[in-house]
Every structure is written in C-alpha cells, then in structure tokens.
Amino acid sequence: MPVKTEEVIKVIGGNPISGTVQIGGAKNSVLKLMAASLMAPGVFHIDNVPRISDVEIMSEVIDTLGAKTSIQGHSMTIDTTGVDKYETPYKLVAKMRASISVLGPLIAKFGKAKVAMPGGCRIGSRKLDMHIAALEALGVEFESEHGYINANVPGKLHGADVTLDFPSVGATENLMMAAVKAEGTTTIENAAREPEICDLANFLNEMGANIKGMGSPVITVEGVNELHSTDHTVVGDRIEAGTFLVAGALCGGPLTAKGVDPNNLSRAIAVLKHMGAEIDVTEDSVTVSRHGDIIPCDIQTLPHPGFPTDLQAQFMVMAIIAKGRSVITENVFENRFMFASEVTRMGADVRVDGHHAIIEGVDQLSGAPVQSSDLRGGAALVLAGLIADGETVVSQIEHIDRGYEDYVGKLRKLGANVVRETIETSDDDI
Ligand code: UD1
Questions:
Q1: What pLDDT is recorded for position 91?
Q2: Residue ranges for the chain with pLDDT beneath 50
Q3: Residue ranges around ligand 1 (CB below 6 Å)
Q4: Average pLDDT of the chain?
Q5: Which DSSP string corresponds to 311-363?
Q6: Cα separation of 123 and 125, whole Å?
Q7: Which residue of 29, 67, 152, 218 is most buried, as measured by CB atoms within 10 A?
Q8: What's the gap in Å between 404 CA and the centre of ligand 1?
C-alpha cells in the first residue's frame, strides 16, 4: 500500500496550563491592510504581522499584481510601486476567501478588476451579493464568467449612500476601500463595527484617506485624489487571545494573554466570567483563572460588539464540560457546527438543531483521532485535547496554520503536553 505522510498535532490531556502568551497581530486585519496597500504606490512598513499561512497567500496575491513583499520576523515591507495588474488568478483566490478584499482596492486604483470567485473556509455559503450591490452603488458594473468576477467603472467612481442588509465585515471593507478614491461622500449604514474595520480605516487615513465613524454603525468616507504609503502596527488578534483564554479557563490558569486590547474582547470576557472564570485586565492584557466548576452558558454569535462567531467552537469546549446544559446559537454563518460533530467522537454530548447547538455537559472527554475541517474548529479540537483523558491526534492541521502562529509552541510554553508530528498515513486513511 502506498505510504503518505501528514503533519498532525498530538495532545496528551491533563497538564496544568499557566503563564503568559504573546498574542500576535490580527489575521483579519493584516490581510486587508495588505490589500489596501495596492492603492498607493510607495513602500509600506507593517509591524506585528503574524507568521501564518493566510499572510503568505495574501503576499502571493499582491505580488502577482506587481507588489513586492518581504518579511523579517514580524515586520513586513510592501513595495507597491510596480503594481500594474488587476487580475487575481483562481489558484490563489481559491485558497483563501479573504483574497476578495483586493476587489475594492483594484477598482479604486484601476477602475477595473478581475477577481476569481473565492474559496477558503467551508463555513456556510458566504455569498458576495452585498459586496457587489455596495460597489454597484458607487458606479461599478459587474459581470461574472468562467469563475471570475469582472468589475468595470464606466467613467468615475462616485460616492453614494449605501445601507448594508447585514453588517458584513468583507462588504464594509471593500466598500470603504473603493469609496476612499470615489468622487464625493459615501455613507455606509449598518456597517460592520469589528476592531479590524477600525484598524483598516486608521491605516487608510494614515495613507491620506478621510474616513470617519469607524467602530460605529455609520461610516462616512470623503473621497480623496491622492494616497501615499505609510507605516503601521497591526491591532492584536482578539480571536487568538480568546482561544488562549479558553485554554486557561479550561485548565485553571492563571494565563495571561498579552498584546490585545481587552475592550475588543468584552463579550467573550463577560461570558468567561459568567462561566466561572476570574478575569483581570490591563491596558493590553487579559488574565484568566478558574477555581470552581464551569457554569453552563447561553451564547448567541452576533456581529461585533456581539459574541464573535470566530470564538464559537472554542467556547463550545467549555460548554462540553460545564455542569449542565448549554445552548449556543450561531447567527452569523450557516453550517458552522462542523466542530460539534467531530468533538462528539471524544465523548461530547452535542446535538445540533438548525443554528442551535444543545450541549449537555459531561464529566470527562476521551482522547481520540479527530480531523479539523476549518480554522477555528481545528484550534478548538486541540483545546478539547488539553482536557481529554489520554491522547488526541488532530489531523488536517493546515487549517490551524492559516490563522495561528506557532499554536503548538505557544501552548507548550504554557505547560501543555502537545507536539507537531509527521505521521505515515495509508491511502485508506486519507
Ligand atoms: C470575516 C472574517 C471571519 C469572520 C467574519 C464574521 C476575515 C478574513 N474573515 O469574514 O473570520 O468570521 O468576518 O465576523 O476577515 N454574506 C452574504 N453576502 C455577502 C457577504 C456576506 O450573504 O455579500 C454573509 C455570509 O455568508 C455570512 C455573513 O454574511 O453568513 C457574515 O459574513 P461577513 O461578515 O462578510 O464575513 P467575512 O468578511 O467573509
């Protein structure tokens, strides 16, 4: 039988976890900053860049368009003087949905764009209708053929009043970026309020844009003619921080996540407290510890400042060993409960009913081979392994590498018994 190899994460549960973990820059911000840099020729310096595979893919995407990216440690330099193309190939965009965020910048720069329809996480349908409708309001015409979206601006981009049906993060960002160079004023109502939107708006303003209201439901963009390069430090990753805080709460802590603004984690912190954790915050850190039982929760994912969908799977691990019944309702993405069905292999009692997960707390999980099917679900399987009896082997860890820099190394420093290993798999296993 042919032998293939695969990298997996092996976890032996039961170790105490404590100490301080340095949180990196936000994946969901840096990818958009990189896209936005396409709009102005010059040399950008971006600090606090996480070393994750999504950043590598976005580097390839913008380099294909003529940029030159290089990275040392966590500092990235982007030279955009040679950006001369407006077409992103399918082989790159198919790997990562966030590639779609070059659409707004390319339209702003060239008045046209050809972008392959995105792939990425398999979490719900994730349509593009809001991106398209919002950009059409600015004067962009679209047609789609052969798996590509062709955008064209006859004449000039012009400002408009746009109300989004839902505060979509990606649609808000694409619209904001295109509007920066439109003639006149654009008002985005029901805009997404995520901290990464604020980081992008601040970055664009540093480039010479005139954006107000970011962080509120109404963003106003006054179009400008000229943009220039800038230096910027990426906001801390609240989702990476939340993931480690769950590790601390599960295993007792005390665990300090450093390099994140606690204000960006307020719902997650409130739920941790409700579930029995003790929390201390400073300006740029959150410390968690837990002494008593885990109390069941009733979580509803919602756009920011609601509870983030990107922490839903991680918090489900806490619910799984809580003393009683929890309910988690997923309101942002359809079909984002793949983790739930996998973790039942470890003895969890989770029943999914539409967009609700009903979780009956169990006393103990039991280590098992499990497979990650998306980024956050994969990270959550490792968390489940931390408290399970025996060995958990998490496969398909490339999902985790998309968004966590050195997840295993950081957990090991905190005391976890976890390693990355290359194992042999037969074709039957794949
Ligand atoms: C971003 C984040 C992702 C996070 C999500 C919600 C990045 C790279 N990813 O994704 O980690 O989970 O925000 O906080 O920043 N929708 C439509 N039509 C559209 C656009 C979106 O129906 O045109 C739907 C999606 O299918 C989804 C919901 O709106 O159900 C929210 O999507 P959106 O906020 O756009 O998420 P992303 O920007 O894709």
A1: 86
A2: 120-125, 430
A3: 28, 31, 97-98, 124-131, 166, 168-171, 309-310, 332-333
A4: 95
A5: GHHHHHHHHHTSSSEEEEE--SSTT--HHHHHHGGGT-EEEEETTEEEEE--S
A6: 7
A7: 29
A8: 19
pLDDT digits (tens, 9 = 90+) for 328-369: 999 999 888 999 989 999 999 999 999 999 999 999 999 999
19 Cα–ligand 1 center, Å: 33
Q: Which residues of 234-253 are buried (b: 16+ CB within 10 A; e: fewer)?
A: bbbbbbbbbbbbbbbbbbeb
Q: Which residue has the tokens 């201390």?
A: 280
Tokens of 214: 């970011």
pLDDT, tens digit, for every residue of 113-125?
999 876 543 444 4
Q: Which of 121, 198, 251, 297 is catalytic?
A: 121
Neighbours of 35 (CB within 10 A): 26
pTM of the model: 0.96
Going 224 to 227 to 233 to 237, the CA torsion angle's sign is positive
Counting from 1 in the atom list of ligand 1, the atom nearest the Cα of 196 is 15
Asked if 392 contacts 13 with a C-beta cutoff of 8 angstroms, the reply is yes
Q: State the Cα–Cα distance between residues 71 and 45, nearest whole angstrom.
A: 10
Closest residue CA from atom 13 of ligand 1: 169
Q: Which atom of ligand 1 is nearest the CA belonging to 128?
A: 23
Amino acid at 5: T
